[in-house]
C-alpha cells in the first residue's frame, strides 16, 4: 500500500516546509501545485524537494477546487488499486493518527475517509502572551486553544483504475462509501496576526476572481476572527483531545448506502 498526497498551496511561506516534512513521514510521494504564491512559498518548496516531495508546477490562475483533479490526473499512473490518495493535503493540517497505520485498518468495503478536525484558533490573550516568530514550527506549539466541536471533511480515497476525476469537480465522481471511523486532524488556519491577515487577503482576492467559496473569510477585519478562550478547550496532549460533538457529522442515508453497495459491488461504479 502506497499513499500519494496532493498539495495545492498559495502564500503559506511560514508553514509549508514544516507541513511537507511532517507529511513525508507517512506519504510515499507528495505532488505540489503552487497556485501563484507571492510570498516565497514556491521557493521554499523547491528547497525541500526530494524523491518524496515533488514540486509539479507553479501556475498563476484563479483558484477552483478542480485544481486537485488536475494533479491527480497527471500523476494517477503512479498508483495501483489498493493505494490511497490524500487528495487534499492542506499545509495547515497535522494528523493526530498516523495515516499509514489508520488506512491499513480501513475495511475494503469502504472507499474514502473523512477527518475529525480539531480547529485551533487565535485568542485575544495570545496576542499579548505569545512572541510570534512567523515560523509555524515555533509558533504552533504555543497555540493551545481549539473549538469545542469538530467537523468532518473527506481527505483520503482508495485508488481504483476506473475512478474518474472530471474537470471542475472537487473530488472524483463515485468516490464511494465513507468509512464510519474518521481520522483525527489538528487544524491551524490562523497561526499569527500577520499570517491571519495574509490568509484573509488571499481568500478575498480569490473570491473577487470568481471563486464561489470561502464566504467565512469575507470579512477584512482580522480581529473579528479571534475567539475568546472561554468558548474553547485548552490543548495539553493529543491523547487528551476531546469534543462536545461534530457540527457536520456525515453519514450515508440507508437507501443511499444500499445503492452504493450494489453499484460498487457489481462493478457498475468503480
Can you put this structure into words, describing what you see?
Helix 2 links the parallel strand 2 and strand 3 (about 55-60). The longest helix has 16 residues, at about 195-210. With about 270 residues, the chain is an alpha/beta fold. The protein has one domain (about 5-265). The strands form 2 sheets. It has an 8-stranded mixed beta sheet with strand order 3-2-1-4-8-6-9-5, sandwiched between helices. A two-stranded antiparallel ribbon has the order 7-10. Helix content is about 25%, strand content about 20%. It is built from 8 helices and 10 strands. The mean pLDDT is about 95.
Number of domains: 1
Order of strands, main sheet, comes to 3-2-1-4-8-6-9-5
Element-level helix/strand string: EHEHEHEEHEHHEEEHEH
Spans where pLDDT lies below 50 across 5 or more residues: none
Major β-sheet annotation: 8 strands, mixed
Number of helices: 8
Relative helix content: 25-40%
Compute the separation of the termini in Å.
Answer: 19 Å
Compile the SSE list and pairings.
Layout: E1 3-9, H1 16-23, E2 29-34, H2 41-48, E3 53-58, H3 67-75, E4 84-86, E5 93-95, H4 99-104, E6 112-119, H5 124-129, H6 136-139, E7 145-147, E8 154-158, E9 183-187, H7 193-208, E10 232-234, H8 254-265
Parallel strand pairs: 1-2, 1-4, 2-3, 6-9
Antiparallel strand pairs: 4-8, 5-9, 6-8, 7-10
Write a concise synopsis of the structure shown.
The chain is built from 8 helices and 10 strands. With 270 residues, the chain is an alpha/beta fold.
Amino acid at each position: 500500500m502506497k499513499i500519494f498526497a496532493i498539495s495545492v498551496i498559495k502564500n503559506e511561506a511560514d508553514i509549508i516546509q514544516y507541513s511537507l516534512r511532517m507529511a513525508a513521514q507517512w506519504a510515499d510521494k507528495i505532488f505540489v501545485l503552487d497556485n501563484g504564491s507571492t510570498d516565497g512559498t514556491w521557493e521554499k518548496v523547491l528547497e525541500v524537494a526530494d524523491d518524496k516531495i515533488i514540486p509539479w508546477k507553479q501556475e498563476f490562475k484563479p483558484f477552483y477546487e478542480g485544481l486537485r483533479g488536475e494533479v491527480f490526473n497527471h500523476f494517477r499512473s503512479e498508483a495501483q488499486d489498493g493505494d490511497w490518495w490524500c487528495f487534499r493535503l492542506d499545509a495547515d493540517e497535522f494528523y493526530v493518527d498516523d495515516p499509514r497505520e489508520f488506512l491499513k485498518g480501513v475495511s475494503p468495503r469502504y472507499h474514502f475517509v473523512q477527518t475529525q478536525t480539531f480547529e485551533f484558533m487565535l485568542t485575544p490573550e495570545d496576542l499579548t502572551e505569545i512572541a510570534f516568530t512567523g515560523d509555524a514550527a515555533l509558533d504552533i506549539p504555543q497555540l493551545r486553544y481549539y473549538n469545542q466541536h469538530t467537523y468532518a471533511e473527506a481527505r483520503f480515497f482508495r485508488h481504483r483504475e476506473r475512478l474518474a476525476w472530471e474537470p471542475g469537480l472537487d473530488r472524483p465522481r463515485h468516490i464511494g462509501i465513507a468509512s464510519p471511523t474518521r481520522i483525527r486532524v489538528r487544524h491551524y488556519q490562523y497561526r499569527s496576526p500577520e499570517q491571519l491577515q495574509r490568509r484573509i487577503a488571499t481568500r478575498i482576492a480569490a473570491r473577487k476572481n470568481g471563486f464561489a467559496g470561502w464566504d467565512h473569510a469575507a470579512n477584512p477585519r482580522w480581529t473579528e476572527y479571534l475567539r475568546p478562550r472561554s468558548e474553547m478547550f485548552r490543548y495539553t496532549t493529543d491523547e487528551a483531545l476531546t469534543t462536545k460533538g461534530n457540527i457536520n457529522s456525515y453519514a450515508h442515508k440507508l437507501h443511499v448506502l444500499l445503492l452504493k453497495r450494489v453499484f460498487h459491488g457489481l462493478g457498475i461504479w468503480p
